Amino acid sequence: MVEPALEILEQQYDFALAKCRAEGMVDEGLPEAERRRHVRVQFRFDENPEELAAGVTVSNVSAGGISLLCYKPARQGDRVRISVGNNLESEADVVDCRFTNFDHGAMATQYRISCAFLEEAQGKRMLVRLVNRASGETVLITPEDN
Description:
alpha+beta, Thrombin, subunit H, 26% helix, single chain
């Protein structure tokens, strides 16, 4: 038997994915070799200029993980806390961090940080929250205290 809270989360997740598909945010035309276990939702960088000020921009998210553009690098294997506004936090492990470019506007180096959520439910909650967030809510990434 599925817990009621998880059943509600699944409904919210399915609705968020349907909304993203309708808005063309899901690229389902990937070759078989590039397909992933979870549907990945792409975010457009120009939609959330307030994120650039905070130094973190969401590139894409799925139930399994999230990809962020940040001005600070992270080490592979580090545990981080990703928060949206004041309402949702998820823990994730950094699986990759790569230099992407130099942001001349911010005069800073930018990195793509790929993280894996500790639990699939955390990823589903994060995707639902990001799809439905209010304008002006920023995304933050902070190292976990060891």
